[in-house]
């Protein structure tokens, strides 16, 4: 019973503060999730960013982010507890509506690849991701300082590459 009460409390806590206090209920944050245009997915710069992602960042994300931000969720033992299942499903749906890492870079999201990178960088640097309520029962998902630096370096390098990408006509 204590676990259920704790999970309910942390769900409401992280709903309010899980994304750095950003209110995702307003604006276009719930715009339909979409794949980036095919032309962008095939650009040489996007391919270089994706290669670097798969080599340096994806292994970190697989351990710390994929349970909520991909289609490869590994459900915990307590998933089948009534009420908990609905909380977890809701959290996963919300997470994937913002950013889905299932198909590598550029990610499936409701925003541009540039804004996705900025959001990732801000979230890891401000330690908003993974959220506290997830870390309570999944402490091995916490990002080390080296992992935060790896992700931040990758996002910044990728943003610089995209900034210098020639625009198609």
Spatial strand sequence of the major β-sheet: 1-2
Tell me the radius of gyration. Answer: 17 Å
Order of helices and strands: HHHHHEEHHH
Report the biggest beta sheet as strand number plus sense, adding barrel if it closes: 2 strands, antiparallel
Net shape: globular
Look at the structure and give the mean pLDDT.
Answer: 80
Counting DSSP E segments of at least 2 residues, the number of strands comes to 2
Low-confidence stretches: 11-33, 35-39
Indicate the proportion of strand residues: under 5%
Q: Work out the helicity level.
A: 55-70%
Continuous helix count: 8
Distance between the termini: 60 Å
Q: Which structural class fits the helix and strand makeup?
A: mainly alpha
Structure explained in plain terms:
- This protein is mostly helical and 169 residues long.
- The protein has eight helices and two strands; from the N terminus they run H-H-H-H-H-E-E-H-H-H.
- The protein has a two-stranded antiparallel ribbon.
- Helix 3 runs antiparallel to helix 8 and helix 6 runs antiparallel to helix 8.
- It is globular.
- About 17% of the residues have low confidence.
């Amino acid at each position: 019973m204590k676990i259920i009460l704790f999970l309910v409390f942390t769900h409401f806590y992280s709903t309010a503060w899980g994304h750095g206090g950003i209110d995702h209920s307003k604006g276009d944050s719930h715009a339909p999730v979409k794949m980036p245009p095919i032309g962008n997915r095939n650009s040489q710069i996007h391919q270089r960013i994706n290669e670097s992602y798969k080599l340096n960042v994806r292994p970190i994300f697989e351990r710390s982010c994929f349970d909520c931000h991909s289609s490869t969720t590994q459900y915990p033992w307590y998933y089948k507890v009534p009420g908990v299942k609905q909380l977890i499903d809701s959290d996963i749906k919300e997470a994937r509506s913002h950013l889905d890492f299932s198909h590598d870079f550029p990610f499936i999201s409701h925003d541009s690849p540039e804004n996705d990178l900025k959001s990732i960088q801000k979230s890891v640097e401000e330690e908003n991701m993974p959220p506290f309520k997830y870390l309570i029962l999944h402490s091995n998902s916490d990002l080390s300082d080296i992992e935060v630096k790896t992700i931040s370096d990758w996002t910044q390098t990728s943003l610089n590459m995209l900034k210098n990408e020639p625009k198609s006509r």
